[in-house]
């Protein structure tokens, strides 16, 4: 049997969470978001976005740090790359924008690991697939999920209009009605890793 790559996780209590200025969303509704995506597509072509899977441990079980907006919308930290931007550097920029403290000295040293999943948006709709359908020659978005290796201790600043919640793998698994298909796929994406919980 092949040896699984090891990911070290640290207790949620190791991390410091503070608030910072709200990060206003460019879109107030899903229709606004898709309309803006259509406009950007005409200007720049296919949208490429990157998102981070941040793993901590709670009760000796892996949990994923997820941004919660309002009562029912959850997403991974990350966002759209600029045209021609490197994926790794772009994800670091997005993580610093979403979760980095205002003091540069406190910004985590983001260690971007493996790309563990890709999702495709065939049309200007909310539906994404973990493959590009064969009849789609011009997809509208490609989203890549990266595993980010957290340090033993880090300092996060969360915009006041977001919550950063730790959600267990068993709560995410097969739960698209609450978290959507991308987030509920994460336990399966991470099944090829061995998580070593480090007690500190």
Describe the structure.
- The chain is of the alpha/beta class and 200 residues long.
- It has one domain (6-197): Nucleoside Triphosphate Pyrophosphohydrolase (Alpha-Beta Complex), CATH 3.90.79.
- Helices cover 22% and strands 36% of the residues.
- The protein is built from five helices and eleven strands; from the N terminus they run E-E-H-E-E-E-E-H-E-E-E-E-H-H-H-E.
- The chain has helices at 30-44, 87-99, 169-172, 176-184, 186-189; strands at residues 6-9, 16-20, 47-58, 61-69, 73-75, 78-80, 111-121, 141-149, 155-159, 163-168, 194-197.
- Strands 3, 4, 5, 6, 7, 8 and 10 form a seven-stranded mixed beta sheet that branches. A two-stranded parallel ribbon has the order 1-11.
- Strand 3 (47-58) and strand 4 (61-69) form a beta hairpin.
- The radius of gyration is 17 Å and the shape is globular.
- The two termini are 31 Å apart.
- The model has no long low-confidence stretch (mean pLDDT 94).
**Helical amount:** 10-25%
Strand % is 35-45%
Structure summary, number of beta strands: 11
> How large is the count of helical segments?
5
CATH homologous superfamily heading: Nucleoside Triphosphate Pyrophosphohydrolase
Which overall shape is indicated by the principal axes computed on the Cα atoms? globular
Average predicted confidence as pLDDT: 94
Q: Structural class of the helices, strands and pairings?
A: alpha/beta
Whole-number total of structural domains? 1
Regions with little confidence, pLDDT below 50 for 5+ residues? none
Quickly give the CATH architecture. Answer: Alpha-Beta Complex
Q: What does the radius of gyration come to? A: 17 Å
CATH topology: Nucleoside Triphosphate Pyrophosphohydrolase
